[in-house]
# Entry
Amino acid sequence: MPYDFMMMQRNAGHESRLVTVFGNTLDFPEDISLGIRLPAGKTAKKWRDSKIEGLKYCEPENFAEKIYFKFRDFRNKGLIESVIDKYGLTDFDIYHFDGGMDLYRDLSFAKEMRNAGKKIVCCYYGSDLRVRGMFRELDEMSSLNLTVEFDHTSLHKNIHYLFFPFNVFSHEYRYTENEKLRIIHSPTNRLYKGTDKILKIIEGLKSKHDFELILAEHMHRDELLKLKRTCDLAIDQVGGESGGSGYGKNSIENLAMGIPTITEFYDEYLEFLPENPFITCNIDSLKDKLTELLCNRSTLKNYSEKGRAWAEKYHSFESVNRRVEQLYSENGI
# Structure
């Protein structure tokens, strides 16, 4: 998603670069990557899990943590400074700190940019505010706070919701209607997406209805997109745990291609969402909703057309960039 923000800004004629600290493991495109390895193993996981408390501010809790982060900044300083010099990263006007995080744990790069009169924006994408919280000093430096997660609006006193940018027009719209309905479910995390519960309901329907379920896991993104284009219906997340509700990039890919998508929303989110294009249900109503669609497939075409139009209106690069630049203006950026 940060990569899409960069591409959106470039599409609008701005010079924009994306710097990632840790190398990604999912073959997503990158711009400038430091390639630092995120600590792995049981000890690292246990330590990260211990932080899942919805902290308001993210600060070292003891002397050992302070020493660890100081050492990490010292160890990475040479690499970080060489990348800053190589790409002229002090020459920009606006700095987005994704997840509200700096290149350094001590926020030294953000402080340097602030002291140079540059504008600072914090943008939150996922579980960062729910799990880790904010970095107090960076939050105080920020001229504008953005989020693509609806529930973040209740976690931060001064944050603006954005529909995340997506290159809708790079996906060909084609409403496919196979003789045997093809349903796809492509979870990145089974627990968050409610996969096991969904599969149980699917198995119960197979004795009465003729359809095919495609369970797509651990696939390269390009291959997954090809597979999606052969499907008539998608199930995103229903009955998941810890992952909230709603939709993400997976669902917008579906809508852009004309694939109606089932997902779950909590009531407040659903009321907020304008012109809802999704097929909404919870785990208790999923069986009835699927039965209704399997018995009346003609309704899928309406969802397909509505979904593509909605994705263009709210998630296209042009639409989101207009909102971002409006917020820049309103906040003196």
Summary: The first strand starts at residue 19 and ends at 22. The mean pLDDT is 91. The chain has two domains: 2-165+316-330, 169-315. The CA atoms of residues 80 and 86 lie 10 Å apart.
